[in-house]
Write the structure tokens for this entry.
Amino acid sequence: MIVVMSPQASREQVESASELLRSRGLIPVSSTVAGVTVLITEGTDGPELATVLESAPGVDRVVTVSGSQRLTSRVFRPEDTEVALGSAGGAVFGGTGFAVIAGPCAVESPAQMNAVVDSVVASGAVMLRGGAFKPRTSPYSFQGLGLAGLTLLAEQRKRTGLPVVTEVVTPEDVKCVAEESDMLQIGARNMQNFELLREAGASGRPVLLKRGMSATIEEWLLAAEYVLHMGNSDVVLCERGIRSFERGTRFTLDLSAVAEAKRLTHLPVIVDPSHSTGKPHLVTPMSLAAASCGADGLIVDVHTDASNAMCDGAQALDSEQFSTLMGRLKPVVEAVGRTLSPALTHSLAQV
Amino acid sequence: MIVVMSPQASREQVESASELLRSRGLIPVSSTVAGVTVLITEGTDGPELATVLESAPGVDRVVTVSGSQRLTSRVFRPEDTEVALGSAGGAVFGGTGFAVIAGPCAVESPAQMNAVVDSVVASGAVMLRGGAFKPRTSPYSFQGLGLAGLTLLAEQRKRTGLPVVTEVVTPEDVKCVAEESDMLQIGARNMQNFELLREAGASGRPVLLKRGMSATIEEWLLAAEYVLHMGNSDVVLCERGIRSFERGTRFTLDLSAVAEAKRLTHLPVIVDPSHSTGKPHLVTPMSLAAASCGADGLIVDVHTDASNAMCDGAQALDSEQFSTLMGRLKPVVEAVGRTLSPALTHSLAQV
Amino acid sequence: MIVVMSPQASREQVESASELLRSRGLIPVSSTVAGVTVLITEGTDGPELATVLESAPGVDRVVTVSGSQRLTSRVFRPEDTEVALGSAGGAVFGGTGFAVIAGPCAVESPAQMNAVVDSVVASGAVMLRGGAFKPRTSPYSFQGLGLAGLTLLAEQRKRTGLPVVTEVVTPEDVKCVAEESDMLQIGARNMQNFELLREAGASGRPVLLKRGMSATIEEWLLAAEYVLHMGNSDVVLCERGIRSFERGTRFTLDLSAVAEAKRLTHLPVIVDPSHSTGKPHLVTPMSLAAASCGADGLIVDVHTDASNAMCDGAQALDSEQFSTLMGRLKPVVEAVGRTLSPALTHSLAQV
Amino acid sequence: MIVVMSPQASREQVESASELLRSRGLIPVSSTVAGVTVLITEGTDGPELATVLESAPGVDRVVTVSGSQRLTSRVFRPEDTEVALGSAGGAVFGGTGFAVIAGPCAVESPAQMNAVVDSVVASGAVMLRGGAFKPRTSPYSFQGLGLAGLTLLAEQRKRTGLPVVTEVVTPEDVKCVAEESDMLQIGARNMQNFELLREAGASGRPVLLKRGMSATIEEWLLAAEYVLHMGNSDVVLCERGIRSFERGTRFTLDLSAVAEAKRLTHLPVIVDPSHSTGKPHLVTPMSLAAASCGADGLIVDVHTDASNAMCDGAQALDSEQFSTLMGRLKPVVEAVGRTLSPALTHSLAQV
């Protein structure tokens, strides 16, 4: 149940509504959505409580959401949320456009970043990706360049004017990653790292929330709820494959979950065709499929020297493959009534 | 390893090549592909054996396939196989067209069949489906009309001139189902019912082979191999969702498997968006996604009175939803450079 | 809902009770359990119907089972079912004993059978296994010796006096397999081969029903229901591992399902530690675990020359390993208050 | 590859060995194991490198581990690691004993803690559990008492003299949780929260590492490797169920993984039968099975007022059920040649 207070509600009125909820055994969590205070409870009590609350002073309306999502639900907010990044002309997720993020899995060097970024911008990417902090299964694998990687990424952001997204892996790093990038990526392994979600929510920065590799759609939306109830509604969900018995692909890309999530939530949903399939030859067909089933964008691994990539090179597209993907994507995006977000057309300076 | 004999090879030459294989510990299985005898072995021995065989009398060429698929592999046959059904103007799977099969989950009555068939034909289906023998989890659920259902389906085939596909669940029924329909469906639960696969192979009828709900891509292709090595190359594969932990959809539709199967095999692959998702609102987005990622067609549940359907009504589209799907499908199919197979335009008589 | 007729109920009374069910929209399936007619329906209607039925002439009692199992449910039959095989001194599943079936995966030759059988009998196996018809993923793999294998197995049955179980893969073979063996095994791939289940049910022979590799517990019990409603209550369930993402073991042995199945059904449940784990070093720990959690027995692959086995040799125990297993099993079986079924002590003639 | 330096190796010798590894393209990570410096690399290069290294000054021996585990591998350390907690008479995991941890899922109040702790100590638990920081799927669910909960748990530790384990969910909290408890639990959702693992490793406190719900055995051991390579070898692994398609149990308890992990690693492995099954009636059979297949202990949810539990009450045993479990556990533990770790026999003061 969500009790939406009116913009003019006094502190006393908020407290009085909270007290009413507590008297029914419900424990309200207070949040601020679009400048307005809302009180959120896990359970719903009966319909009679909603009626009582709606006539309480300072209460604007009461929303009863079935299931366990709350602020992420279309019942609370029917219209699509648009998450805009960067300054004017930047990337927008969740509107009529279809936006493609591209870049290397890991930031490695200035030369690598220049090469990859030039290439993906030329082909129409509207946002850049690149990992500085890499969560790796083995402690002996390359763990990313850390702060140095963050700086290299920020240089590309400045050079191209494009927004950048990068992963943050621990609450302590949120502040510095938020300063150097436009969007915080929460990786699949951290989807239920709740302290990290809360900290990302508090940062005010847009969040790219990857689905955990064994998370249900409901758990994914509840992870987003952790960000939203901190007052941050700029969340983009990202499907990146789930674990199944199938060994022919790295993970099983669950596009039904994209369509289902779009039905349940107002938040934008994008797809990662690279990490999910783990095979370059599957990236293009899965990208087209994502565009057709309602996704709002893609995040694609691109490397201009994949065989020497320090992380996950085997799945990255090269420049030419990415260019081909973008060319094939456009008619499909338009066939479902959307527009491929346009590439920047200004010239790029070398750092 | 596949030893392809020349069309003029004598019986003695075939036996001599077989003997050569046996002398290396390989046990050849003989099959006839496009009128030519081939000898197939599980293992491959060394490259030297291939050289010896290729110069043996009556041997045309030797194909060494890595992995365990043989006749289904693109290594054996690089070009796409087209499976054509019905007379001229019927459905073709695997060419440049994209063909849609539609109809009710189960055949129930003449009135139901007339209504559903009229509706799907009007919207552009080029082939009909309808189950007469229904494999059901519980022995107390409706098991299909059996032979009576087969007759009702055959009446629609005659009335419309469209090819029909229906499921066969046991080897004994193959002959009679082959007589009354154009294509034998092997359901997901029977994907590894090897006697049924052999019998369907021997029937010479085209086969629609659904992927088992926990079958790997490799196991699916090996099930097709059971049909092909009986001398029957007319197999259409059908992805219909796999089992995973996700409970928000009935099964997890694995579209990566469609793209991967298309890469590995020359056989056509279609998608069942109805049984996989179990939710009508997911059928259209998943159909569009299937068309984009390389599938050759769809098989869709349609019911004009879904709330009274005797089997799986909850997931069926109604006439209007199916018509909308077909309308949205056309531009997507064309955006990937294919053609939506045209609906018949002749008038339909009532049975 | 199950309507149990009294032993003296007339044909008219049965028909009258059936008619009453049909008038409420329930479609009764008639079966004979322990010589008594029962009418089984999928749904239950309201409690009032049960009251009406219980006072109808010829009706003994009405059992309302929640969930979808019926004759397999402990609600219908609270006490454990014991399935006894062979003549006096044979194997019994489901009582206070714990019985071990052992033998090779596939029957290969008289010498192999003599060696393996002598070895497992010496270590305490009370029943023999051996596959004559082998369902194999690839059509080019060894498919079993077929009828010749059946004969070899029957010779061991005669030689040892022990009951034997062997797999049947198609309805047509049920009659001949039932003649040559004491128990019909339905393999995991055929768990939902409903025609095969019905035919096995009609044969009157005890059935060993393996759980499908992606079957839920409920689907497994409903597959057993197909056998029971044909009037055959001698079903032993067998857990043999399910498919999961884990690749360190061949399948994931689901022992919770054993304990849960024992709670839900009166049928005996045994465990296959060989096919599930695929690793000999896991067979003993998983056998002990099975004995501790309530299983009624084991079915174990043993081969005296595993490296030359024609099928699944890699997972088989050798004689010594099997002997060690039996030695370690005894105290664990006794620690949970049961008795390891005793080995035969007569001398064995060579065939 | 692990290069074990001799205890007398100089800083220069360590650096020289590192340099040798780097010259072959291997990036060594330095760690301290039992007071000795080891250099660990992800890859292994050829056997020739090992020979060169073994004759380098200051190098004691070189261990080449196949697969990706290193310090956790039995190849590096063949004998079982014993993890001892608390002062003399506390709990030991990994020796010949079998130790049971018990307590409530969440710490709720002094009265609740007194009641549950008295009950589990009376029945033979040798260590206490209780969550103060609860990671919850929904932000609106009870999140644990936090620091107040930690204090309540510490009071029980003091009152009983028993060691306690509690979950830590974020790196920042490691220090304070390490002060108030004997062992840090890393939950399933945080198994790949690598910063948390590193921080726990650095704390020097023993770590209870739960397996992620979709983690392979290899990933689980590599997560432990993150703790070990920080110089902390006191890690106890805990299997708590994995995600599969089966919906009849909360998770699928993977006991094969316990036996397989015991073979691969020298670290102790225990089992959580409560969270894995989610059903009290499955806790006892799965506990007995765990004891039989090689587990070194259990961690069990117990609540004296489960129907009012604030978290996961539905799966907790009550006092009587726990007492019954302990009684049934003893003979099974002894049947596999181990000893149930004895309960304390001193009287307990009330806090």
Notes: The mean pLDDT of chain B is 93. The domain at 83-340 of chain B is CATH 3.20.20.70 (TIM Barrel). The interface with chain D takes residues 214, 243-245, 247 of chain B (CB under 8 Å).
